[in-house]
Amino acid sequence: MKILHGLLFVVLALFVNVAHAEFVDVVAKVKPSVVGIGIHTPTSQPQNILRGTGFVIGDGRYVVTNAHVLPTELDESLLQKMAVFIGSGKQAKVRKAEIVVTSDLYDLAILKVSGAPLPAMTLADSQFKPDGSYIAFTGFPIGAILGLYPVTHRGMIASVTPTVIPVQSAGQMTIKMLKRMRNPYLVYQLDATAYPGNSGSAMYDMKTGEVVGVINKVFVQETKEAVITKPSGITYAIPVKYLHQIIKENNIRW
């Protein structure tokens, strides 16, 4: 019996090590496709302000992020420009970017960056992933303070839920919630914790590295948790289904 238990332990250890090695390879492949989204001001210090995360798709010149991550105003007198930051740490480089399309409904944006193509991630199909699916996301949590150093979190899809939740009284309704109720859609609720700066990160399958969703730290949470005095900090992600929809509706080709 002891011998059998010992063999089972060895087999389990080998299985865990193999799975870990596979995930290490996936993260290494994903990281070059992860970029920062922010503002570049050549006349100021610091020159770069990081607002969130994005990831490269298509032919290597398109970047996906959350719409709320994009800068709302740029100071032309300071030569400010929206920028995509590639690489990490002090070796990060600035690429100019232009907005191709934004979706207020899904809080998604697609940008096109200048320069040579970047390594791109593969989008999964439009099918919803079931509860319990293991996922990971790589981005820049609290990047405005900690800098452009990609960090990976892992977890699982805890639930697929609508973007709005019932409220106890009409007084608890906000304009944002009313607008969302006209066009409700499903989002992923995760058991992993994202932080400010993670918004726009690709949520990907831990085995394949395919993008299954886009982390959304603020937009969805403000609606779903508006009736909570102290927000729980649950993390949500926009399913890739809606990214496919935006790409198709806007006839984006690469």
Summarize the structure in words:
The chain has 254 residues and is an alpha+beta fold. The protein has a domain at 134-249: Beta Barrel (Thrombin, subunit H), CATH 2.40.10. The chain is 22% helix and 33% strand. It contains 5 helices and 12 strands. It has helices at residues 2-30, 143-146, 175-182, 219-224, 240-249, and strands at residues 34-40, 48-57, 62-66, 81-86, 93-103, 108-113, 134-139, 151-162, 186-190, 202-205, 211-216, 235-239. The protein has a 6-stranded antiparallel β-barrel with strand order 1-2-3-6-5-4. A hairpin with a 7-residue loop joins strand 1 (34-40) and strand 2 (48-57). The chain starts with a helix and ends in a 5-residue tail after the last helix.
- The span between the termini is 60 Å
**Main beta-sheet strand count, sense and barrel state:** 6 strands, antiparallel, barrel
Question: What's the shape?
Answer: globular
Counted by DSSP, the helix tally is 5
The chain-level mean pLDDT equals 84
Level-1 CATH class name of the domain at 134-249: Mainly Beta
Name of the CATH homologous superfamily of the domain at 134-249: Trypsin-like serine proteases
How many β-strand runs? 12
What is the percent of helical residues? 10-25%
Structural class estimated from helices and strands: alpha+beta
In the CATH hierarchy, the third-tier topology of the domain at 134-249 is known as Thrombin, subunit H
